[in-house]
Design a protein that fits this description.
Elements (H helix, E strand, L loop, with lengths): L1 E5 L4 H12 L3 E6 L13 E4 L5 H10 L4 E4 L6 H6 L1 H21 L4 E7 L22 H20 L2 E7 L1 E3 L17 H10 L4 E5 L11 E6 H16 L5 E5 L4 E3 H12 L4 E5 L8 E2 L4 H7 L8 H12 L2 H4 L6
Parallel strand pairs: 1-2, 1-4, 2-3, 4-5, 5-6, 6-10, 7-9, 8-12, 9-13
Antiparallel strand pairs: 9-11
Helix pairs in contact: 1-7, 2-4, 4-5, 6-8, 6-10, 8-10
Length: about 325
């Protein structure tokens, strides 16, 4: 297949580009490098540009016959979305619609969308399946849910088929060590914990230890970035073969508490580090775990790296390469 990956210079996008290329597909990355890194695009063609620009998109689609498009170009920080909702609705919703309009114009019918568990809001039950109500509690979650609705409408009106994948907690790094996670600022738990293990941070803070869980700390579902990418590839193959618009929840279905994660990180790294306890944060539910049985049943998805120690080991191998990549900034 010939695939366009927007946001392919970012964390998940760069791993997706590698997987597509290694699977024999012709891949083009479009990224404005706001949060991505040009040196992370190690495969296929790279074009610096923005999905907000229809001229750039029309030229790209006129010169290429894409079989499908994968979207990794959203802003993802919940707290920032609360402070800057306009920025999130503009980029995550309006700019995505520009891309979809150009796809319709050029008759490209297959679209893979990175959605999020944040569309569900406070869970009514866990594990969370696709039947769970979607009631986001922040602009980030609202923006992703809006795109899911737009995609359903574009299917009805224009025949544009899509698969939306609702991530829980993407984690880990390329098992071969070529790629990994580098956000500025970093907000994800595993890399923050590993920064404490490597000495780049003085400590790590657990926010709340009095939840209704076995050890009092929040339970979360972590999915290896390569397993996440494999689901995207299965989704694209499904659409190109004539599949209908779908949305799937995606996680390991295995919940680990914050304390458990820290203990595994100490064991994997062989390093001890200071762990502080802070107050609960607003909006942190006690448990967030995915029910991915529908994805497994319908697309045949099988996570390869479900064990938390493996996820952390791959992330730790990347963290230990910090001197190679840490001085760079998005450019």
């Amino acid at each position: 297949m010939k695939v366009l990956v927007v946001g392919g210079a970012g964390y998940i996008g760069s791993h997706m580009v590698k997987m597509l290329s290694k699977s024999g597909h012709d891949v083009t990355t479009l990224d404005n490098l706001t949060n991505g890194y040009k040196d992370a695009v190690k495969y296929g063609q790279f074009i610096e540009g923005d999905i907000a620009n229809p001229d750039v998109l029309n030229k790209l689609f006129s010169e290429n016959s894409f079989d499908g498009v994968m979207h990794f170009a959203s802003y993802i920080q919940v707290g920032e979305s609360v402070e800057k909702p306009s920025m999130y609705y503009r980029n995550n919703v309006s700019n995505t619609q520009v891309l979809l309009d150009v796809m319709v114009k050029h008759d490209v019918k297959s679209f893979i969308f990175s959605s999020t568990a944040a569309t569900f809001g406070e869970p009514d039950y866990t594990p969370i399946d696709e039947a769970h109500s979607q009631k986001p509690i922040n602009p980030y979650g609202h923006s992703k849910l809006m795109v899911e609705q737009i995609l359903r409408d574009f299917d009805h009106a224009y025949g544009l088929k899509s698969v939306s994948l609702r991530y829980f907690n993407a984690a880990g790094a390329d098992p071969e060590g070529e790629l990994g996670e580098r956000h500025i600022p970093e907000t994800h738990l595993i890399p923050l914990v590993l920064q404490a293990a490597s000495g780049r941070r003085e400590n790590i803070t657990i926010f709340g230890n009095d939840y209704d869980t076995p050890d009092g700390t929040c339970i979360r579902d972590y999915i290896h970035v390569n397993d996440l990418c494999s689901a995207h590839l299965l989704g694209l193959e499904y659409l190109v073969a004539g599949g209908e618009t779908k949305a799937y929840n995606m996680g390991n279905g295995l919940g680990y508490s914050i304390k458990e994660l820290i203990d595994v990180a100490k064991d994997v790294t062989g390093n001890d580090f200071t762990v502080l306890t802070g107050e609960r944060r607003d909006g942190d539910p006690a448990r967030l775990v995915a029910d991915s049985s529908l994805l497994k049943k319908e697309l045949g998805w099988k996570p390869e790296y479900a064990d938390l120690s493996v996820i952390i080991r791959h992330a730790w191998e990347w963290e230990q390469k910090f001197d190679e990549w840490g001085s760079s900034s998005p450019a």
